[in-house]
Design a protein that fits this description.
The chain has nine helices and ten strands. The protein has helices spanning 47-59, 82-97, 104-117, 126-134, 175-180, 186-193, 197-212, 216-224, 246-254; strands spanning 4-15, 22-41, 66-72, 137-141, 146-151, 157-162, 229-232, 239-243, 263-267, 275-278. α6 packs antiparallel against α7 (197-212). 46% of the residues are buried.
């Protein structure tokens, strides 16, 4: 049996589903590649990897657990969907290696369940999984686990600021407080349905930031550099900025503040979904 690679991407939060049932996410070009070697036995990994494979073995007894290696451009624990990409890639690769036939929605629902079991998500993050699987902008019902709408991403140059020493785990978020304010999120679904994902993402980031805090210095810097959209990506703490002009993002990179611990990565939104290749 040949080795395989699963290629997928991270994303930006458009609607965080902590407070209510609807979620939305938009794929970005930061990639992750997970390689599966069926000829070699699984030799251990993170607790999240092991929990995911135990969950899948319970679902499909007698399956092969191959050796896995992961390469990722997605900063971890920053609100950029690295955990969803990771879990979806493990589920997709496991099914491919073991010849398990399952359709797209079935794969996504299985990955959502795995995300809860492995501790990387409170809700299953069905919206994040969908944008990773299909690319583009995805609006979902995270309770029924249905994809409500998917369309192509807007244009723009994207710059993301993050501090790898300052991360935010999903389990540390006060979800109860957000749910008590759930009505604040109600208008966002309609914005996304009408094709305004960036506008929704700004409101969403600011709402979540009221509970988690937000890097106001970086937000202010991006505004000064003529970003047309700036906000925290969901739970953050990463902040993203969208520029219409290449000259403006180049200027923002050139003058990016040093000595603060913040890093940046430039990317773009993407319509590319998950890919599985034999190697």
């Amino acid at each position: 049996m040949p080795d395989i690679e699963v290629h997928c991407h991270g994303g930006i939060s458009v609607i965080s589903a902590f407070a209510q049932r609807y979620g939305a996410s938009m794929a970005i070009g930061l990639g992750m590649v997970v390689r599966f070697s069926p000829s070699q036995e699984f030799d251990g990994g993170t607790k999240e990897t092991e929990r995911t494979f135990r969950f899948l073995l319970d679902k499909y007894p007698g399956s092969i657990i191959p050796k896995v290696t992961i390469e990722s451009e997605i900063p971890q624990a920053q609100g950029l969907k690295s955990s969803s990409a990771f879990t979806l890639a493990l589920v997709t690769g496991f099914c491919s290696v073991n010849g398990i036939e399952i359709d797209g929605i079935g794969t996504l629902r299985l990955a959502a369940e795995a995300s809860i079991v492995n501790g990387t998500s409170l809700t299953g993050a069905f919206d994040d999984l969908c944008s990773t699987y299909y690319g583009g902008v995805c609006l979902t019902d995270n309770v029924s686990m249905d994809l409500l709408k998917r369309y192509e991403v807007p244009r723009g140059y994207v710059l993301i600021a993050y501090n790898s020493e300052k991360y935010r785990m999903t389990g540390g978020i006060d979800v109860g407080a957000m749910r008590r304010s759930s009505e604040s999120w109600n208008p966002l679904k309609e914005l996304v349905m009408k094709g305004f994902p960036l506008e929704a993402s700004i409101i969403n980031g600011n709402l979540v930031g009221e509970f988690t805090g937000i890097n106001a210095d970086i937000v202010g810097y991006f505004r000064e550099r003529r970003a047309v959209y700036v906000s925290q990506s969901g739970k953050g703490p990463a902040v993203f900025a969208v520029f219409h002009r290449k000259a403006d993002i180049e200027d923002a990179i050139r003058h990016f503040p040093s000595g603060t611990g913040n890093r940046y990565v430039s990317t773009a939104f993407t319509n590319e979904g998950i890919r599985v290749n034999e190697i």
